[in-house]
């Protein structure tokens, strides 16, 4: 379905921190406002990098660590490195670690944190429970959350989602993921299952024709190759070449951003979203990404709804998963 050009189109929001209207405070936000002491470790595990942060209830990152996923030789090596990093950050800041939150691709089984789905980009976690391993070694409560849901939680409380009740966060990097927020709550299944935003089929005739195939880092590179450029050029270089005026790079980015707009339009039509937030490493491109997506949105979103939504770059950047995992751990600790 095409919305046509009748609508004014989505705004390309430049001040993503500014809420369009006040959001009802949730129990979790009230807890955050009252929390000045405890801090949690947020761990964001991706196929390229593993990021850690010591996070306060107000969204401040007091200490950070980063490791290359490829440097991890085994599950036990990964767990050991994380334990050392947690101890070092606690000592560095003289701050007690109240809880630990893990943001990971796929889905962890409630209760024991065993990873049971979606670990193709992080095979060390397949059929293992990092939560149980860290709990045993650190004697702290540990929770696991899908990385896209964690990033959405971080944006909801500390980023461009503040003040919004309905938005989607899309994350673009090694894969495509994200989270959906409705009525100020991150939406998950009955057993915590995340939405699979990257699995949306945008072209049934392509193999594969999924959102992830078009808009992951590999998808950007493939679009550049298909437009006549060399193979395996990373997205950041494609954006740089487009900024320098290269026609091939601009053609490739336009094709990929049109696919992103198609996915945004589909979700806007279904959920009457206030905003589609663009996150992940590729979103560091900023306005050139945001503006291209917004320019195509009227072809896919119903005009009445399109006028009432915003395309914006996520405000928490590379900290989204760390912030969300840490905040989630603090909130789960208070509820338990």
UniProtKB/TrEMBL annotation:
Bias type Basic residues, positions: 17-30
Region of interest: Disordered: 1-35
Entry-linked Pfam families: ROK
Family as reported in the entry's similarity comment: Belongs to the ROK (NagC/XylR) family.
PANTHER family: BIFUNCTIONAL UDP-N-ACETYLGLUCOSAMINE 2-EPIMERASE_N-ACETYLMANNOSAMINE KINASE (PTHR18964:SF149), ROK (REPRESSOR, ORF, KINASE) FAMILY (PTHR18964)
Name of the protein described by the UniProt record: ROK family protein
Gene source species: Phreatobacter stygius
């Amino acid at each position: 379905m095409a919305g046509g050009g009748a609508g004014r189109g989505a705004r390309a929001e430049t001040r993503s921190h500014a809420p369009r209207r006040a959001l009802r405070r949730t129990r979790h936000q009230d807890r955050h406002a009252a929390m000045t002491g405890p801090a949690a470790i947020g761990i964001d595990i991706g196929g390229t990098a593993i990021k850690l942060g010591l996070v306060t209830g107000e969204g401040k990152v007091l200490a950070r660590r980063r490791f290359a996923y490829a440097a991890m030789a085994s599950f036990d090596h990964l767990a050991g490195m994380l334990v050392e990093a947690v101890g070092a950050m606690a000592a560095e800041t003289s701050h007690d670690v109240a809880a630990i939150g893990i943001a990971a691709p796929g889905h962890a089984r409630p209760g024991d944190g065993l990873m049971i789905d979606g670990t193709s980009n992080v095979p060390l976690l397949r059929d293992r429970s990092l939560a149980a391993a860290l709990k045993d070694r650190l004697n702290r409560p540990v929770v696991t959350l899908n990385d896209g849901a964690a990033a959405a939680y971080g944006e909801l409380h500390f980023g461009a989602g503040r003040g919004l009740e309905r938005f989607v966060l899309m994350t673009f990097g090694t894969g495509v993921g994200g989270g959906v927020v409705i009525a100020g709550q991150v939406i998950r299944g009955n057993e915590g299952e995340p939405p699979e935003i990257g699995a949306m089929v945008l072209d049934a005739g392509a193999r594969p024709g999924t959102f992830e195939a078009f808009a992951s880092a590999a998808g950007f590179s493939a679009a550049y190759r298909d437009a006549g450029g060399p193979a395996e050029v990373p997205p950041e270089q494609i954006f740089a070449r487009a900024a320098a005026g290269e026609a091939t790079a601009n053609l490739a980015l336009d094709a990929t951003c049109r696919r992103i707009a198609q996915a945004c339009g589909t979700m806007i039509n279904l959920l009457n979203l206030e905003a589609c937030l663009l996150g992940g490493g590729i979103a560091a491109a900023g306005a050139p990404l945001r503006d291209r997506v917004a320019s195509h949105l009227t072809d896919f979103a119903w005009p009445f709804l399109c006028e009432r939504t915003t395309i914006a770059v996520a405000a928490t950047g590379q900290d989204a998963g760390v912030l969300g995992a840490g905040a989630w751990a603090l909130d789960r600790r208070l509820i338990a």
